[in-house]
Amino acid sequence: MKKIVLMSCLAMCVAPAYPQRIDITPREDVARLTGEQIYTHICQGCHMPDARGAAGAGRYPALAGDGKLASAAYPAAMVMNGRGNMPAFGPTLTDAQVADVVNYVRTHFGNTYIDSLKPDDVKTFRPVATPPEKH
Amino acid sequence: MGSDGAASMTRRDLLRMIGLAGGGALMYQAMTSLGFAAESPYRKPPPLQGSGRGSVLILGAGLAGLVAAYELGKAGYKVKVLEYNARAGGRNWTLRGGDEYTELGGYKQRCRFDEGEYFNPGPWSIPYHHHALLAYCRQFGVALEPFVQVNHNAYVHGENAMGGKPQRMREVQADFNGGVAELLSKAAGKGRLDDLVSKEDGVILLEALRGFGGLDKDYRYVAGHACSSRRGYAKDAGAGPGGEPAFSQPVSLHDVLGSHLWKSLGMSGMYEFQTTLMQPVGGMDAIGKAFVREIGPNVIRYNTKVTGIAQDERGVTVSYEDTAKPGHVQQAKADWCVCTIPLSILSQIPIQVSEAKAAAIGAVPYWGSVKVGLQFRRRFWEEDEAIYGGVTATDLPIGMISYPSHGFGTQKGVLLGAYTLFLEAYEFTAMDPARRIRRAVEDGSKIHPQYAREFENGMAVAWHRSPGTLGCFAGWTEEARAKHYSDICSMDGRIVLAGEHASYLPAWQEGAILSSLSAIDALHRRVVVEATA
Questions:
Q1: Alpha-carbon distance B201 to nearest alpha carbon in chain A (angstroms)
Q2: In this predicted structure, what is the pLDDT of residue B422?
């Protein structure tokens, strides 16, 4: 990841060339994204690359130094099911990926929680499929 | 999959499945088919019978807020609008050379388009059946021109289809129709349809298939007059010696099916995208500006961030800060409140409403969307490829390229270089604006190699980072609608909500307008009842 960032910084200084590919995950590869990749490809859109969030008419909460991360269950449930303007990523990510991205956020951006989630830990937050409608 | 299974799937599941199967264009098509297809029920201006009395605070100066301010003001109410941005219009917005835009995170862009060039980062087209919006355009003298959605000479493109070479939509459409028509004719000829259609209908069906598919006299879809009159010619008809046209060679049904390019064909037939679509001359923001002109001066307070909404039996009190003086809370009071703040933001503002309404406000996440406008020094799509307006669909992350519907034959042009939704929107949002633009240029170069030489500059708008909306449009699911929609729309004491989020036309300007008309009608009825009580 670092290498890609560095290369693109260089490219920005040498206009007007577009030599290198900017990563977008092919849909079939989404299930292989690591926690860090999920953060940089999805989460940072709103929570920002430094995880400090942002404020306009409303705000995106900072994840850096967020006391609510003390319990891993809270971010796991948020990622899985969403709340308010936070979308649910349960349908997009596997249990392992939800655990992975939560573990990533809880050990980066100044967060230093050492307990880590396993895929089985987040399974409980996955909503049960609604039964088919009766006609 | 049985019909029960399909009915039980959440909208999100469905979109994800479609997304995994197809490209961005298909997602776009699918999105618009899920709850977007209702024709606008609008027929005439709202019947605000009797004269209004008292005051109304309107939160948000997007189209919903502007409609409320205009109509209620006209009906005799004292109206005041509080708007977060330094401009009115909300998502009704146009970027031009010299404009500056700072998205959340502090990423600042300065638009470098040439004089006369523009880009609509939000809504960009008006279907002919969006009667309310069109009626306001007519009323306010907003000049409209055709918006080209379907262009048979634009491309359908798949990275792994036909060697990655963009195919003219005309050819894929003709080959798909021709191949299917020939297949059905063969089946009929072998008596395979005998138990499905009567003998008389069978004869008519064959005749219809020949016309529909461009089949020859023997019901074959082969190179020749009928086929080329639909898919085009290897050499167009000319004049003089050598003027004779040369027929083109159709692609077999097997190859068309295997290319999966047919997935992009359906969009042109969908209700929202059927001819005629329109756009305001010079940019979509002409509509918002017309409302501001009609409403008159000193009604809208800009740079105003709402921080709390309270009500009691006597009136509504809204707390706000001037964005230049954060922390310095002021208050505005009125008898009534029309709140058009997007739910993405309203869900974070303390608001004194029923528990059910508060729950509804917090139950709708917003979809993202990213649009990238690219200026080119030469309209190569017109000069080199005879593409005048319309959409090229691709399964690349950019989703589509749309060519300007105006300024045909002029030198430069700004095209829509990316329109992403869902997963691609998240990924484009996660990039800084410069990277989004470079990615759009990189993807687009695979369809138009001219990009490399002709690209000048661009603007990229990621709606999740839009400070005034924190998203593109309300992401209703069928479950959420069943549970919460009526609570979003109900009048709660002295407060009523409006916006595209309170409509069955999400993301469309028509939804915002109809919602506002419905909200002010409810408000006005309440006032009339109180006055007669």
A1: 34
A2: 87
SS3 of chain A: helix, strand, coil, percent, to 5: 45, 5, 50
Nearest partner of A118 among A51, A82, A73, A74, judged by Cα: A73
Residue B20, pLDDT > 80, answer: no
Closest Cβ–Cβ partner in A44, A58, A82 for B430 = A44
Within an 8 Å CB–CB cutoff, is residue B340 touching chain A? no
| Burial environment of residue A131 by CB neighbours within 10 A (0 to 12, 13 to 18, 19 or more) | exposed
Among the listed ranges A26-30, B53-57, B410-414, which one has the minimum average pLDDT value?
A: A26-30
pTM score above 0.80: yes
DSSP H helices in B53-198: 63-74, 131-140, 169-189
DSSP string spanning B232-252?
Answer: -EEE---SSTT---EEPPPPP
Q: Do B430 and A21 touch (CB under 8 A)?
A: no
CB A37 within 8 A of CB B458: no
Sheet order of strands, B400-403 included: B167-168, B155-157, B390-394, B400-403, B413-421, B369-376, B455-462
User: Chain B closest CA to A18's CA: distance in Å?
Assistant: 7
Helices (H), B446-501: 451-454, 478-489
- ipTM of the complex in this document: 0.88
E-strand stretches of B196-326: 233-235, 246-247, 277-280, 300-301, 304-311, 316-322
Which of B301, B438, B442, B455 best probes binding to A when mutated, by most A CB atoms within 10 angstroms? B438
pLDDT tens-digit profile of B58-95?
A: 999 999 999 999 999 999 999 999 999 999 999 999 99
Nearest CA among B398, B411, B483 for reference residue B442: B398
d(CA B480, CA A98): 23
Neighbours of B25 (CB within 10 A): 26
Tokens in use for B410? Answer: 């002029």
* Res A13: pLDDT: 33
**Nearest in space to B368 (alpha carbons), one of A47, A36, A102, A46:** A46
**Residue A7: phi, psi to the nearest 5?**
-60, -40
Give how far Cα B330 sits from Cα of A115, B324, B327, B368, B402, Å: 45, 13, 9, 32, 45
What distance in Å separates the CA atoms of residue B520 and residue B527, rounded to the nearest whole number? 10
Of all residues in chain B, the percent with pLDDT exceeding 70 is 91
- Which residue in this structure is represented by tokens 């979109």? B15
Q: Phi, psi at residue B361, to the nearest 5°?
A: -60, -35
Reply yes or no on whether the pLDDT at A12 is more than 70: no
Write the DSSP symbol of residue B164: G
- Rounded CA-CA distance A4/A40 in Å is 12
Read off the pLDDT of residues B187-211 as tens digits, 9 standing for 90 and up: 998 889 999 999 999 999 999 999 9
Cβ contacts of B347 on chain A, cutoff 8 Å: 58, 84-85
Q: Of B27, B26, B23, which is closest to residue B368 (Cα–Cα)?
A: B27
pLDDT at A29: 82
In angstroms, how far is CA B522 from the centroid of its own chain?
28
Helix (H, G, I), strand (E, B) or coil at B513: helix
pLDDT level of residue A30 (50, 70, 90 thresholds):
confident
Q: Would you say residue A65 has pLDDT above 50? A: yes
